[in-house]
Amino acid sequence: MKKIYVLSVCIMLLLLSSCKFSETIHVTDDGSGTMSFSFDGSQFMEMGGDNLGESEEKTLDSIIVFKDFLEAKKDSIATLPKEEQEQLKALERFKMHMLMDPNTKKMVIDVNTDFDDVNELEDMFKVLNKANELKETNEVQQTSPLAQMGTTESSEVHYTYNGKVFKRIVKVTNPELLEATKDSLADAEMILAASTYTLNYHFPKKIKSVSLENAMFSQDHKSFSAELSFKDYLTDPESLNVEVILED
Q1: Dihedral of alpha carbons 189, 190, 193, 194, sign
Q2: Residues 221-236: what's their mean pLDDT?
């Protein structure tokens, strides 16, 4: 199983060239807010040149509201093991917008959710993997190209916020698998170097400090953006640990 997972990552990474991932979180005064995960693979589409524009593939521009989808498939989902049902139920609060246009060479995927408490948030790659498990429809499977990516099998991501301190906490849970992933990605060094993972965090108070050295602050000092290496995301996930301290 581990070998299959590592192979999946390698295959996907061979397709990625200068792709951009971003994780955006907006936190309000009461600790609720929104989170979105975006993937821009337009540069990869451009690598296909004129062949993509001449292909018979049609433009895909769709929005998947998982709550509606799960309701429509509730009978078949009810036949699954309880654990799988609970995992799929966790998708209810997510929406996914997918745009793939071979003519304009656009490939953009955005997954977003509202939350009542920062502690509800999870690794968005896990969300995409859960979405890929909805095998009852070809639409979801075929339009989830990011599934099986990230280090979701070797690490866990948690978020905390107490009104003054926000944390993005990454913990490696399977060191052996992480090392195997590093080895499998050795030949993709140049590809990985061209891809980025950007954090965009917005808070209701001014930011006193951020643990990331390359954080760029907004004019009102309530937001910051930090562009990180996607290679680090995959091979050194704990390097994306973040602590944000807000002013009183």
Answers
A1: negative
A2: 91
Q: Which long-range contacts (CB under 8 A, 24 or more apart) does 110-113 make?
A: 110/36, 110/37, 110/38, 110/39, 111/36, 111/37, 111/38, 112/34, 112/35, 112/36, 112/37, 113/34, 113/35, 113/36
pLDDT at residue 161 greater than cutoff 80: yes
Q: What is the domain count for the chain?
A: 1
Q: Is the pTM of this model over 0.85?
A: no
- Token pair belonging to 130: 């859960």
pLDDT at 152: 57
Which residue, 21, 22, 20, is CA-closest to 202? 22
Q: In terms of residue numbers, what domain contains 182?
A: 2-246
Nearest to 25 by CA among 171, 128, 161, 206: 161
